[in-house]
Design brief:
The complex is a heterodimer of chains A (about 475) and B (about 325). With about 475 residues, chain A is of the alpha/beta class. Chain A is about 25% helix and about 20% strand. Chain A is globular, with a radius of gyration of 21 Å. Chain B has helices at about 25-40, 65-75, 90-95, 100-105, 120-130, 145-160, 175-190, 205-210, 230-235, 250, 260-265, 270, 295-300, 305-325, and strands at about 55-60, 80-85, 110-115, 135-140, 165-170, 190-195, 225, 240, 280. In chain B, strands 7-6-5-8-9 form a five-stranded parallel beta sheet. Chain B has a four-stranded parallel beta sheet with strand order 2-1-3-4, sandwiched between helices. In chain B, strand 5 (about 165-170), helix 7 (about 175-190) and strand 6 (about 190-195) form a beta-alpha-beta unit. The chains are: A alpha/beta (about 475), B alpha/beta (about 325). Bound molecules: zinc ion (ZN). Zinc ion binds near residues 162, 163 and 189 of chain A.
């Protein structure tokens, strides 16, 4: 493989004595795979003596990961990310498919923008699949519907005004109705803007201490309640309507989704790695994982008293929308992932330049560059015993695929270790670490609060559609 | 020209960004150093050469003549070269970035920066970029460490140790960097601190006071007390500090009217009667007389508002001196 380059067909690959995870079959265990001519030629599960010494803390073979929420910034802000650097970053993170949000400049509210980004993906040479969301409203302005049908015809996998909610309820209702007939979901960024004007951080103890304008939990809960009411209201006329709530960050909003699912409403949701593993105390300079910030009785610990403030306060890499929440909400995010309320983990990868981030906290852009650290963050949760490995893998593969539903993508929905199909997989060493630095991140967005941190889960190889997407330089 | 720290000097802080990182011993050191500065201020020529050759650049992105002048006088009393830059609030949003401004100031020879900014946390960014010490003269709602230290100095000058004494901060706590910094210093020194105001202007503080169990606080008994009951707050108080109320709070829908605010939360003689007879009256200024504080209260004998202004210079001198590497004994005979 030494002479292989990104985009080349993987003619021959053998991974021996690794821990295989097949989320479609719901199976994991010791095994081996071989790839020949870009096809997954064999998957064999080892037993007895042959399996001895192979465990989930070593080399893992997973299906290629799917991220249904990334921002690739092209067109309009290529200093922050391009399609090419975004796809390279995705491959480094183990993702073989990503769905880009339409909040570019211009917004993807018209098929012409789709054509432009698809051409950029083609010329990048990356085998990572680029899926596209269209805007719900023209210019994401919340006033008129975007070219929904034309965008659907051009291959949109979902629709979103992400960066902001669909501003007016009546437009949301009409979008759910209209797209119900087409069978595509609205991806909603749930935020009641009336409650969050100029917000800088999660409204709670940390924002009280730091003097930051609060983003209240009710701002998400109210928005999700609005959308669920609208969804229920359109179903008689549009039984195919589907709502997907993205980056849900609070316990009450997750509870609303849980109950709506139990009542049979066609709603799905995703959570981000940062809302699962980071907390608002990171704004004050803490860097411990969310599960380390909770006491045995479930109460949130005091990072000042714990002397847990290791970094400088007001690091704008921790500024994101919705904001990093307190550890009790992070625990609710984890619980929602465990019980299936959250269908998927999506990164909300939001690269930014220093021009937008190396400024005062209150005026800094929102967002975390996260597509390269997501798998490592989930593996940290797995290593801590907070998340079963199979659940983590499902949340990055079959879960997001089910959110998108049947689609005409070149690889279809199931994402297992499918013998005979084009190889689409990631080889990651759960026992090896890597350090997050401006140099190790392939993304142009260096805005990660994990900068300088050593993380578990080093991606050794990513193969997408039978072709090389990423290979670790030292493996 | 800056003296090296003497062996045994305990000042460990490169910057003064907020008081949350200060131990009680740090605070004591500031108080002791400020005592030395008070002695210097009492001399016919209140000037020492401690910071001779040191360039102190004062950058205020938010207008405040009082605080700026206090820092300027403090730095000049220590013989520093003072450069004043009025950055103006508009440049926060557009124009030269804070990082560029700090780099420019450093290239022009600044050894220390004193700054005020309307965005919470801005001094931390400046401190990351700048090679020398940064002294926070107030940032957003977040912190005003020199104010909290001069408030403490003023209380100690009149009352001695504040431990166990009931101190009430009254008014718009939510938007107050003065209140936030005072919470750290007063709880560190063991005062019985009460915060009082309308509930819309106290949001989040009860959780701060009580929620985190850290061994110091039993359930329901926080590190400080938060209440909207002004009578309970003022009862037997030994210090009452009123905060400025801004008209924007009505526009933001946080309060019905100034009239209603002053009727319910204004510090009047009648209300003050519930406090100890010798209770100190404080205000960080500038005052809205007749709103948060009655005119006849501000001029009472026990009003120490002008002491606060005078002590502000001594405390700021102390902090500039400590940041420059000095130690308190070094000033003796200065
Ligand atoms: Zn969003």
């Amino acid at each position: 493989m030494a002479e292989m380059r990104v985009g080349d067909t993987v003619e021959r690959l053998d991974v021996e004595r690794a821990w295989l995870v097949d989320p479609v079959a719901g199976r994991e265990g010791p095994g081996e795979i071989s790839v020949r001519g870009g096809r997954l030629e064999s998957v064999s599960w080892l037993k007895g003596a042959a399996a001895k010494g192979v465990g989930p803390e070593g080399v893992l073979v997973l299906p290629g990961l799917l991220d249904i929420h990334v921002h690739l910034r092209e067109p309009g802000n290529e200093d922050a990310e391009t399609i090419a650097t975004g796809l390279a970053a995705a491959a480094h993170g183990g993702f073989t498919s990503v769905a880009a949000m339409p909040n570019t400049t211009p917004a993807a509210d018209d098929p012409a923008v789709f054509a432009r980004v698809r051409a950029a993906a083609e010329s990048s040479g990356s085998p990572v699949e680029l899926l596209l969301h269209g805007a719900v409203t023209a210019g994401r302005a919340g006033e008129r519907l975007a070219a929904l049908g034309e965008l659907a015809d051009a291959g949109a996998v979902g629709f979103s005004d992400d960066g902001a909610p669909v501003k007016t309820p009546v437009l949301m209702r009409n979008a759910l109705l209209y797209l119900g007939a087409i069978g595509l979901p609205v991806f909603e960024h749930a935020e009641d803007l009336g409650l969050t004007a100029n917000a800088e951080g999660h409204e709670g103890v940390v924002s009280a201490i730091l003097g930051l304008k609060g983003w209240p939990v009710a701002g998400e809960e109210a928005a999700v309640a609005r959308d669920l009411a609208l969804l229920a209201g359109v179903l008689p006329d549009a039984p195919g309507a589907r709502l997907h709530v993205t980056h849900v960050s609070t316990a009450p909003a997750l509870e609303l989704v849980r109950r709506a699912k139990a009542a049979g409403l066609p709603v799905t949701c995703d959570v981000t790695p940062h809302h699962l593993a980071f907390t608002d105390e990171w704004l004050a300079g803490a860097r411990r994982w969310s599960w380390e910030a909770v006491a045995g009785d479930g109460t949130v610990r005091d990072p000042w008293a714990d002397r847990a403030l290791v970094g400088r306060p007001f690091d704008t890499a921790t500024k994101v929308n919705p904001p990093l929440r307190s550890a009790d909400h992070a625990a609710a995010v984890l619980a929602a992932l465990l019980d299936g309320t959250a269908d998927a983990v999506a990164t909300d990868h939001a690269p930014h330049t220093d021009v937008d981030k190396h400024v005062e906290f209150g005026i800094a852009a929102n967002g975390i560059s996260g597509v390269e650290t997501a798998l490592s963050v989930l593996l940290a949760a797995v290593a801590a015993g907070k998340l079963p490995l199979l659940r983590a893998v499902k949340a990055l593969t079959t879960g997001p695929a089910s959110v998108l539903g049947a689609r005409p993508g070149r690889r279809g929905a199931p994402r297992g270790l499918v013998v005979g199909a084009a190889a689409d997989l990631v080889v990651v060493d759960a026992g090896a670490t890597w350090t997050v630095t401006a140099e190790t991140l392939a993304s142009r967005g260096k805005n990660s609060p994990l900068l300088g941190r050593e993380l578990p889960g080093r991606v050794l190889l990513t193969v997408a559609d039978g072709r090389l997407a990423y290979r670790d330089g030292e493996s | 020209m800056i003296a090296a720290p003497a062996p045994g000097a305990t000042w460990q802080h490169r910057h003064v960004l907020d008081v949350d990182v200060f131990s009680a011993a740090d605070i004591d050191l500031v108080m002791r150093t400020a005592d030395e500065m008070k002695e210097i201020l009492a001399r016919p020529i209140p000037k020492v050469p401690a910071l001779r050759g040191t360039s102190v650049t004062i950058i205020f992105w938010e207008a405040s003549t009082r605080t700026r002048v206090s820092f300027e006088v403090a730095a000049k009393n220590l013989s520093a070269d003072v450069v004043n830059i009025a950055a103006g609030t508009s440049s926060v949003v557009k124009g030269e970035s804070l990082v560029d401004t700090i780099r420019t100031v450093e290239a022009l020879g600044a050894d220390m920066i004193v700054m005020r900014h309307s965005v919470s946390g801005a001094p931390y960014l400046a401190a990351e970029v700048f090679g020398g010490p940064v002294l926070n003269g107030g940032d957003g709602w977040h912190g005003h460490p020199t104010q909290a230290l001069l408030d403490l100095y003023t209380m100690r000058a009149r009352l001695g140790d504040v431990a166990g004494r009931k101190v009430v901060i009254l008014g718009d706590i939510l938007h107050s960097r003065v209140a936030r910094s005072n919470i750290w210093t007063l709880t560190a020194m063991g005062a019985d601190l009460w915060l009082c105001g309308p509930t819309t202007l106290l949001r989040g503080f009860d959780a701060w006071a009580t929620r985190w169990a850290d061994g110091r606080a039993a359930p329901g008994h926080g590190r400080f007390t938060v209440t909207s009951d002004i009578d309970a707050a003022l009862r037997d108080a030994e210090v009452v500090m009123a905060l400025r109320l801004q008209r924007e709070r009505m526009d933001a829908g946080l309060l019905p009217s100034l009239r209603e605010y002053s009727a319910r939360f204004g510090l009047t003689r009648e209300r003050l009667a519930a406090a100890r007879p010798d209770a100190l009256v404080m205000h960080p200024g500038p005052m809205n007389e007749g709103v948060e504080i009655a005119a006849d209260v501000a001029v009472l004998d026990r009003s120490v508002i002008l002491d606060q202004v005078a002590n502000g210079v001594a405390v700021r001198m102390a902090l500039l001196y400590l940041l420059s590497g000095g130690h308190p004994e070094g000033m003796s005979g200065g």
